[in-house]
Amino acid sequence: MKGRRRPEVAKRLRWIHDQLAAAYGPQHWWPAKTPFEVILGAYLTQNTAWKAVERSLANLRAAGALTVEGLRALPLEDLRRCIQPSGFYTRKAAALKAFVAMLDEEFGGSLKALAATPPAGLRDRLLALPGVGPETADAILLYALGHVVPVADEYLRRIAERHRLQEVASGSKSYGALVELTREAFADDPRDTHARLFNEFHALTVAVGKAHCRRTAQCEGCPLAGDLRYAK
DNA sequence: CGCCAGGCCGTGT
DNA sequence: ACACGGCATGGC
Fold first, then answer.
1. pTM, two decimal places
2. Residue A175 pLDDT more than 70?
3. Which one, of A154, A200, A186, lies nearest residue A173 by Cα?
4. Residue lying closest to nucleotide B7, CA to C1'
5. Are residues A117 and A215 in the same domain?
6. A67 strand C contact, CB < 7 Å
7. Number of domains, chain A
8. Which residues in range 201-230 of chain A are in contact with strand B, contact meaning CB within 7 A of any of its atoms?
9. What is the mean pLDDT of residues A133-144?
10. Is the CB of A174 under 7 A from strand C?
11. Residue A99 structural domain
């Protein structure tokens, strides 16, 4: 069975968390004031620098569109202009409108009602929306709706790759494998709730990612430099 | 100036 | 089941 080596890999992932937590401290994510702002940010930050997302959010704020009602009332053309700084604005504008339409038609326009539905079915419903893939869905579930799910991203993928955390088996670098590995890493961790551990871990992943795990690695001063298995 | 960012989707093997 | 190109802008 391939389950033989998994606990070892999960342990190394938890070591990575501990190193990052010691180096960076509490992150208290997501950087937003309301659940709906989390959702907006989750869409807008897709393959996009957060700095650019902030400019888009500022435009939306000026347009009074940081709320469900505000975004619903904002014409598509205006929405496109607001979010233009963060790129892919045609697709992202349509996707955000589709989210609000779904919320209106199936949940009476209420984020509370959305959050009250069972997480498993909810995840599938989110994934069925245009412009929502696994990371966006999980970010919404965890940071906006308060469900206990891990979030993986490109930075974690690079960490797993460069620190040789994954087996070379096909599909091992997929998003789902990273999420399962994260679940396993904190499965019996008594230090905190899984919600907070998943929250912190993803935030720390982004923190170290921005500083050290870009396409071209910047390993000077990286808190993970002590891992002997690091390659590249 | 060129590279790249907190993905997702359609198409082709 | 993957690999790959397109989507778009702005920061560094």
1. 0.96
2. yes
3. A154
4. A46
5. no
6. no
7. 2
8. 206, 209-210, 214-216
9. 98
10. yes
11. 35-144
